[in-house]
Design brief:
This protein is of the alpha+beta class. The protein has three domains: 49 residues; 166 residues, D-Maltodextrin-Binding Protein, domain 2, CATH 3.40.190.10; 167 residues, D-Maltodextrin-Binding Protein, domain 2 (3-Layer(aba) Sandwich). The protein has 14 helices and 13 strands. Strands 5, 6, 7, 8, 9, 10 and 11 form a seven-stranded mixed β-sheet that branches. Strands 3-12-4-13 form a four-stranded antiparallel β-sheet, with helices on both faces. Strands 1-2 form a two-stranded parallel sheet. Strand 1, helix 2 and strand 2 form a beta-alpha-beta unit. Helix 1 packs antiparallel against helix 14, helix 4 crosses helix 12 and helix 6 packs across helix 12. The longest helix is centred in the C-terminal third of the chain and has 31 residues. The radius of gyration is 27 Å and the shape is globular.
Length: 455
């Protein structure tokens, strides 16, 4: 009888021990941040991946020319003034357009927006990470890098003609190449020179290199090796220092010119016009915009739109009319305005309200205004992104990830996804915790019932 009582007491003690641990686990799970709402709106849920960077000293206001002056005369009376106002990071010659852009905003809203100039987009990402800037406009390939490597998120996107939020990634070649070979395909340009709007950009690099990777079927090559082994020369300026491939548009082993002659879609087309390369990978409307008769024609625009054709990835050519149909590598999400994950909600809401204000459309996006570099030439306005960044980038993010896997161990890419997908990782953690609680509840239920049942 004494043994039974002792055994029974021990059983009750163990039941109580497990019950208290269950309560402790429940409290821990309850204290975890809740996952993002199922609607997925970036502007609703914003868990900070890292604490906001506090820059020593007071924030710098605008100088007379609209660029960060380093002199403090500001106040913190509005959301825009938090952390030094709204600081737009402009790359190279974008700064002139940025000055015009912020001057229109400041006149209409009375808030303090300013421009921060950097040499490359990578420098802007670093400046935003350090708290020296707030916003930068990036195309989809670079936006994925900002999302993965710099804890940034997409908050707004460009809107094009017909309210489109995508554009087509295409290859453009000289018409004579198509007329001389009715069955022409991308393989016919193996051993020729190529023009790319930028290393790691979606339409200029990731989409075509991902396609060529399937053609060469060599799993041992990284993206640069795929390009340089397929083409005899490559002109691909990079927004990351040291990653230029310019043996088609500069001297061997030299970086591309810092002035960006061959950067972006227009630069890749210029490379083709000047016959530095024989195929250009660009946005679908590039030739229409920058040809001799185009609305964005330049001094180097010495050829007509009729001198070029789309080269279809599956073979054959098509007339250039801005709508390549299935003669494309795929649709690319519109360029995005990227901001740090740690940006305060109040400041982000002010930025979105300003950028999507319809009263700014005429002043900022009219075809004949000065702002032709800060945004894509066909931009008609900006819209708030109501998806998490990874979902907005969609297929483009998958292709960018495929390219990254060629250059880095798979485990590293996977870890980037977990560390930076803030709106996804929190949700996953919450779900796993809930699953554990359910399993333990089922295991402890008989013990708890035994404690409550009279013996």
């Amino acid at each position: 009888m004494h043994i039974f009582t002792t055994t029974r007491a021990r059983a009750h003690f163990l039941d109580l021990f497990f019950f208290l641990n269950f309560i402790l686990l429940s409290v821990q799970c309850f204290l975890q941040p809740l996952p993002a709402p199922s609607s997925g709106a970036d502007h609703v849920f914003q868990p900070p991946l890292s604490p906001p960077v506090v820059t020593p000293g007071a924030p710098a206001p605008l100088s007379e020319n609209g660029v960060d002056s380093g002199e403090d005369k500001s106040t913190a009376s509005s959301p825009a003034m938090v952390d030094g106002g709204v600081r737009w990071c402009a790359v190279r010659d974008q700064v002139e357009n940025c000055r015009f852009f912020v001057s229109v905003i400041n006149q209409l809203t009375g808030y303090s927006w300013k421009c921060v100039q950097r040499k490359k987009a990578q420098d802007c990402m670093e400046s935003i990470k350090k708290g020296e800037a707030d916003l930068v406009n990036l195309e989809a390939g670079l936006a994925y890098n900002a999302f993965i490597s710099h804890s940034m998120k997409a908050i707004a996107n460009e809107v094009y003609y017909d309210r489109s939020k995508t554009y087509e990634a295409v290859a453009v070649v000289n018409r004579r190449a198509c007329e001389n070979n009715e069955k022409i395909s991308l393989m016919d340009f193996k051993g020729h020179k190529s023009c790319h709007g930028g290393y790691s950009t979606a339409a200029g690099w990731n989409y075509p290199i991902n396609y060529i990777k399937k053609l060469v079927n060599n799993e041992d090559l990284n993206d640069r090796e795929i390009a340089t082994s397929f083409f005899s020369g490559v002109c691909a300026p990079s927004e990351v220092e040291g990653f230029d491939i310019c043996n088609a548009c500069s001297k061997e082993n030299e970086t591309c010119t810092g002035k960006g002659f061959y950067s972006g879609h227009s630069g890749a087309f210029r490379c083709l016009v000047e016959e530095l390369g024989e195929i250009a990978f660009v946005k679908g409307d590039t030739v229409l915009l920058y040809s001799m008769e185009g609305p964005r024609s330049q001094l180097w625009s010495t050829k007509s739109v009729r001198d070029f054709m789309y080269l279809c990835p599956q073979g054959g050519c098509r007339e250039i009319n801005g709508y390549p149909g299935d003669c494309t590598f795929g649709a690319v999400p519109a360029n995005v305005i990227m901001a740090p994950n740690s940006m305060p909600t109040k400041k982000r809401d002010h930025i979105l309200e300003t950028l999507t204000n319809t009263s700014l459309v005429d002043g900022l996006y009219a075809p004949n205004n000065i702002g032709c570099h800060l945004f894509s030439p066909s931009t008609q306005g900006l819209a708030m992104i109501e998806k998490v960044t990874r979902l907005y980038l969609g297929k483009s993010a998958s292709i960018s990830q495929n390219i990254q896997k060629l250059n880095a161990p798979e485990t590293r890419v996977a870890s980037y996804e977990v560390d930076n997908s803030s709106d996804e990782s929190s949700s996953t953690s919450y779900i796993r915790c809930s699953q554990v609680m359910t399993i333990i509840s089922l295991l402890l239920l008989p013990m708890i019932l035994g404690m409550l049942t009279p013996k």
